[in-house]
């Protein structure tokens, strides 16, 4: 039996999700999460940068800008997934195609993207075709829980800034484990709560981010995510704390909102304020480490790459 979470550990959004049936929660996520991402893609382009990457960038020096950090993050994802031409990738929550386009164009893998937003799908397909990789990309507007993949049919699965929107994490990890081939890789890049309760998770600020701004979010302790992965046979190979990188990423996003406020307001009145408010409140949480950002890589069965060949983060080769 799973132990009950300690007092104050859950949010209002999570408690509400627990009162719904799995089917009702799936429909709640489909409607509420999609609403945020159905806004004009050009708004997100001026906020998130050229890559339209809505997740942490990786900064190598104090002089790096957002574009360099996101290019580095995409290269990191590509290396960790270790794809070969013709291999199949599932990009769950593919957004406007940042990871999807990187993988399809740089590795010649075939990429199947999922998103809840038709506007994200359209922009991602447009970008893939512009890169000459359109024939290796398929994107469906669907919830991951609806996916009916044959067993052991996918070589890699990536969740970049997306698994936080999914309540039924145990079911999602079971789907991942079934779909992956032996030796298949999974990468998750997302936000977590520390096990120790820090700050007020029931605050109006938390509700603003998790419900008003983003539709539905569920942050869990890292150990719970790793435990669910372990339970379905996914061996965790690497976990990296990139919280400080996320703080810098959000700083760049907020600067872009301020710089392009008139542009954003002309297309979606009030949206600049919503974005800036939720990002600044969230940024404070990560700076204070009341929330954390991690990247996780795991494998199903025997890996084809030895960990001895990995560079040690922060140490020059």
In brief:
By secondary structure, the chain is an alpha/beta fold.
CATH topology: Rossmann fold
CATH superfamily: Vaccinia Virus protein VP39
Classify the secondary structure makeup into a structural class: alpha/beta
The end-to-end span amounts to 46 Å
Query: Sheet bearing the most strands, described?
Result: 7 strands, mixed
Report the total helices. 12
Give the C-level CATH assignment: Alpha Beta
Choose one word for the global shape: globular
Amount of beta strand? 15-25%
Considering DSSP H and I runs of 4 or more, what fraction of the residues is helical? Answer: 40-55%
Please identify, by name, the CATH architecture. 3-Layer(aba) Sandwich
Low-pLDDT windows of residues = none
Protein model, in words:
This protein has a single domain, classed as 3-Layer(aba) Sandwich (Rossmann fold), CATH 3.40.50. Helices cover 45% and strands 17% of the residues. It has twelve helices and seven strands. The protein has a seven-stranded mixed sheet with strand order 3-2-1-4-5-7-6, sandwiched between helices. Helix 8 (204-213) crosses helix 12 (271-287) and helix 10 (243-259) packs antiparallel against helix 12 (271-287). The longest helix is centred in the last third of the chain and has 17 residues, at 243-259.
